[in-house]
Amino acid sequence: MKFTTAAALTAMLGVAASAKDKRTFAVLHFTNKQLTVARADPIVTPGKPSTHVHHVLGGNKFGLGSTGEDLKQSTCSTAKVKGDNSNYWFPSLYFKDPKSNNLESVELFYANVYYFFEATNDDIKAFPHGLQMLIGDPKLRTPPATGGKTNLDPSKGPVNPIKWTCPRKNIDQPGWPVNSKGLMAGIQDPVNKGEGVGFPDVECDGYASPLRADVHFPSCYNPEAGLTDYKNNMAWPQDNNGKADCPKGWIHVPHLFFEAYWNTPAFSGRWEQGKGQQPFVLANGDATGYSLHADFMSGWEEPLLQHIIDTCDTGTAGMEQCPGLFHGQNTEECTIESPVDEQATGTLTKLPGNNPLTGWSYGAGDGGNQPSPSESLSSSAAPAPSSSQSSAPASSAPASSAPASSAPVSSASTSSASESSAPASSAPASSVTDESTPPATDATSSSPATVQPTNPSESEPAPTSQVQTSQAPSSTVPGAPVRTDQCKPASVHTVYKTVTVTGSAPASTSTGGAEREVGGFKYAGCFKDASTRSLKGKIRPNIGAMSNEKCVAECKKLGFSAAGTEYGGQCYCGNELEGSERLDESACNVACEDNASSKCGGSWALSVYSETGEVSLKNSQRRRHMHDHMKRHSGRY
């Protein structure tokens, strides 16, 4: 069942059936880390290589010149919801080795796309097929006029929808220099210490939560501008008595929020923190992080997305849990070769596209006097000598008081204070500022290698709906041509031992806000979750807004003897904990979605209840036997 674009536009311009009084949302998860890694951008440079490398998610008909019509022909997609053949892409991240000066690709840990359906007087409609959006400014090397604060409402000043999140073990340790003006280092959000603009200058060492790129998209589409005029076809909604409304004649579409986690802990200890020399650079050569940007091309089956908009509020449990999905879920991995024949991952001597490093200590700080990147496929990405080989390939919005004007601000005009000539507009705000950026999410099936934090993060931002859930399936990094020197899998020998831990085992004597007894189950304590999940019997049953009572009741109904809540909104069932250990009660510090007076776990921390108040721990020690030609990794998340 498909709509034509004309039919969809006709339906979209109809009168809204009813006002929407509160935000609902669903998180789109992906089946593997990316579709490809490639110097391709069919929106900005259609038909030829892009100036820089992107990580791409979504349908497999992505290419140098792909259009909405091409996306319809996709035979697989990394999106978990079958029927979404859209493409989502953002610049890749690299690590510049301070000793060798080589560049090493950073692995994308995982990514999510939030679909927010805001409270509004408008009728929220599905994206028209082939809609193209770009947000952010690849040329930007200076801080936004808004500083480190968050604002998505142009009536309150310039909009900057770009941020970085840096979870830290100790929330009181700043991720950005105190009183930074953004000219030699990024700027911390004065409200949320875990967020800022520009790259942080310390390691993001929060438990299982590495450096995260955050990008918001506007949600007002101008049909007069058309699907492909990405510089003028989108604007931000504006607050109208607590609701986010679009200008008259514009179409209110979902508010997208990209979050991409990068495996920066893989480079821990290889650079000096807090010295104004942070080592990460975007694929366009930006050493500041200010030029973070993202693209979207809609390949949704429009009736399916409309059904999700109208009926789904699964939140962090995932869009794949929405009721009545027309075609079910995608479960297979989906990858394509890069359409550009060059090396884009691994260890390089130059960035693909010959992009010079710019910003802060590298100069060209205003982003205006950079050399034009080459589009050749020559030696720009030449591999570094094998002796320096690395196997670490990888991976919100400030405010202002400036007055608004009456003209809608397009997504292009809000992306760069330095290039914009359009004044701030009356295009309504998409959300209240303190709700615009979700908290750090957890991974469910894939983790960065090489680092094993011992403490859960205490730096997670206050959640919009308490929690994110993410599924980061294991996969190799696709995209660049297969190299003959790639490593083979290590053999793994696993030894198990089981112990029993009671609720009175050594730990904090406080329950940290968890009830002593719930639904006939007794509190056993706060325990670390594993990337493969410690309670495996039933993972995140779809039981709505979370409480310990709901989770215990569901696990009991399913016949399990233990229940655990995590990060305020997740439930896990089982009979024993695998690969876990007891944590201090302070790690289980996130309020339950459905009962704010109680705690439902924390970041990779489970509030565990069992029939007896005791729980069995099935621990494992892994010994990896590596071939001589492989780089040895140690530890795991």
Automatic annotation (TrEMBL):
Region (Disordered), start-end ranges: 345-490, 616-637
Residues making up the signal peptide according to the UniProt record: 1-18
PROSITE patterns per the UniProt record, alphabetical: WSC (PS51212)
Comp. bias regions, Basic residues: 620-637
Annotated protein name in UniProt: WSC domain-containing protein
UniProt KW keywords: Signal
Biased composition (Polar residues): 451-477
Positions with biased composition (Low complexity): 371-450
Organism: Beauveria bassiana
All copies of domain WSC, residue ranges: 520-612
Annotated PANTHER family: PTHR43662, WSC DOMAIN-CONTAINING PROTEIN (PTHR43662:SF11)
